[in-house]
Amino acid sequence: MQIRVQFWSYFRELTGCSQATEELVDEATIADLLQRLHARFPKLVSMHNSTLIAVGVEYQGRDYVLKPGDEVSLFPPVQGG
Q1: From residue 14, how far is each of 19, 38, 44 by CA, in Å?
Q2: Ramachandran region of residue 31, left (φ > 0), alpha (ψ -120 to 50) or beta?
Q3: Which of 10, 30, 33, 80 is the most exposed place for a label (fewest CB within 10 A)?
Q4: Considering the domain boundaries, does residue 39 fall inside one?
Q5: What is the pLDDT of residue 43?
Q6: Quick check: is 12 in a domain?
Q7: How confident is the model at residue 81 (pLDDT cuts 50, 70, 90)?
Q8: What is the CATH number of the domain that holds 49?
Q9: Domain annotation covers residue 43
Q10: Which positions ≥6 away from 37 have C-beta within 8 Å?
Q11: Residue 45 within a domain
Q12: The total number of structural domains that make up the chain
């Protein structure tokens, strides 16, 4: 399944882009997605423990099972105005 990921605030600087798409197996979790993103964008690893994650408009934990069509947003805990 394809999952679209949006990067917000300085996560855009860490990744060099504002969004990405990852191909994952069915029943993959946010933790699986993060593992793939850390391999693709190694600078994100330093933010692993403080990354906020939302699917749609709801915050989710790393054990959340992704569904086809989910849109995931990653952002730091503090954002400027």
Answers
A1: 12, 11, 6
A2: alpha
A3: 80
A4: yes
A5: 96
A6: yes
A7: low
A8: 3.10.20.30
A9: yes
A10: 5, 20, 22, 44, 74
A11: yes
A12: 1
Burial (CB count within 10 angstroms: exposed 0-12, middle 13-18, buried 19+), residue 47: middle
**Chain segment 7-66, per-residue pLDDT in tens:** 999 999 999 999 999 999 999 999 999 999 999 999 999 999 999 999 999 999 999 999
pLDDT score of 78: 73
* pTM exceeds 0.85, yes or no: yes
Tokens coding 81 = 């105005």
Q: Tell me how far apart the terminal alpha carbons of the chain are, to the nearest angstrom.
A: 34
DSSP 18: S
Q: Which domain holds residue 50?
A: 2-75
Name, in order, each residue with C-beta under 8 angstroms of 70's C-beta and a sequence gap of 6 or more: 3, 4, 55, 56
